[in-house]
Amino acid sequence: MFRVTTEIININKDNPENDKIHKAAMILKNGGTVAFPTETVYGLGANALDSAAIEGIFKAKGRPQDNPLIIHIADINQIDNLVENVPVKARKLMERFWPGPLTMIFNKNKNVPHIVTGGLSTVAIRIPNHKIATELIKAADLPIAAPSANISGKPSPTHVNHVIEDLYGKINMIIDGGMTGIGVESTVLDVSCNIPTILRPGGVTREDILEIFPKVEYDLALKSNEKIVIPKSPGQKYTHYSPKAKLIIFEGNIDNVSNQINVRAEKYLDEGMKVGIMATEQTKDKYQGCVLVLGDRQKPKTIAANLFRTLREFDKMSVDIILAESISKEGIGEAIMNRMKKAADENIVVNGGG
Ligand code: TXA
Ligand code: MG
After folding, report:
1. CA nearest 128: which of 225, 195, 41?
2. Domain 246-350: homologous superfamily in CATH
3. Residue range 219-246: mean pLDDT, rounded
4. What homologous superfamily is domain 7-224 in, according to CATH?
5. Does the global pTM surpass 0.70?
6. Is the dihedral of CA 328, 218, 41, 167 positive or negative?
7. Most buried residue, 134, 171, 224, 352, by CB count within 10 Å?
8. What is the pLDDT of residues 90-127, one digit of tens each?
9. Which of the listed residues 66, 69, 160 should we mutate to test ligand 1's pocket, taking the one with most ligand atoms within 8 A of CB?
10. Distance from the CA of 188 to the center of ligand 1, in angstroms?
C-alpha cells in the first residue's frame, strides 16, 4: 500500500490567508494532490494539464479510469484554453449560474489529457462558488481537475473529517474550510445537443435552468429504472454514495411510509439486526431506536446539506440496515432522491396510497 505524508491545513473560508493558499497552490503546481472545499462537496484537486498528477487522483480514490473528472476554473477566460468552442447556450448559462453548482459539458481541445476525460472527446467544466476554491485555482494559475474527495463509491464529503477518514495518507494536503453548503454535487448539464440535457441532477435545479430555456430534458438513464440504458455521464453507472449497511427507501403517502417503516424495523430487529431509520423533522417522533433526522421536509435544502453526513453517521453506528423515507422530487429534491436511490442500489418499497 502506498503512503504519502498528508498535511492538514485550516483556512478561513471568508478571508483565505494568502500564505496558506500559496502553500497549497505550490503543491498543485508541482504535480501534487490537494483536497479543498467547494460550495457543494469537498473536491480532490490536481493540475488538469498534467497526466501524472491526475493519475494521483485516480489512485488515491480508487476511481475507475473511465469515469471522467470535472475541471474547475476561477475565471471564464480560462475556458478558452480547454475547449473547442463555447456554444451560445452555454454562455447564457455561465452568465446566470457561474460561479455555482452547474457543470457543463464541452468538446475538449488537445490541451486536455485523455486521462481527465476518461477517453471521451468532451470535458466537464465549472467555476465553484467558494472563496478557498477560487483563490486556490487563481494562485496555482492552472485549471484544476477535481472529483469529490471520497474513496470511490462512498458518500461525498461535506466535512473535512470525511476527507480525512477516506484520504489521509493518500494525498499531499487537505484544506479544512468547514462544512460545505449545498451538500449534493453540481448539476451536470450537456449543452451540446438542441435541448439542454441534465446528466446528473444537482445544486442548480431543472426549474432554475427553465428560467433561461423553455425546455430542459433529463438523460434517459435518469428517467428509467432499467439498468440497460447507458447513462451519458459515466459516473452515473457506478454504485455510489454507499453506506456499509443496506439501504431501503420507502415511497408513498408519508403516514403509510412511517407505518411501513415501523413494521419493517420490528421484523429486522426480531431477526437480530441493528436497524437505522432516516427520518425528517416532521416524522422523527414516530420512530424508536437509531433514528437520525435528515432535515425539514418544508426546507429540502436542509436535507441536501445533511444527506451524505447522515449516511456516514449510520456507518459509525454500525447499523445493518437503514430504512429511509423518500422525499418530494421537486427542486433540489430531484438531486437528493438521485443520490438516495444510488445509495440504495434502487432498493425501493413503493408503498401505495399516493
Ligand atoms: O459538485 C461537484 O461537481 C463536485 C465538486 C468537487 O466540484 N465534484 C464532483 O465530481 O462531484 P465527481 O467526479 O464526483 O463527479 C463528476 C461527474 C461524474 O458523474 C462524471 O461521470 C461526470 O461528472 N462527467 C465528467 N466529465 C464528463 C463528460 N465529459 N461527459 C459526461 N459526464 C461527465
Ligand atoms: Mg463523486
Report:
1. 41
2. Threonylcarbamoyl-AMP synthase, C-terminal domain (3.40.50.11030)
3. 80
4. DHBP synthase (3.90.870.10)
5. yes
6. positive
7. 171
8. 999 999 999 999 999 999 999 999 999 999 999 999 99
9. 69
10. 7
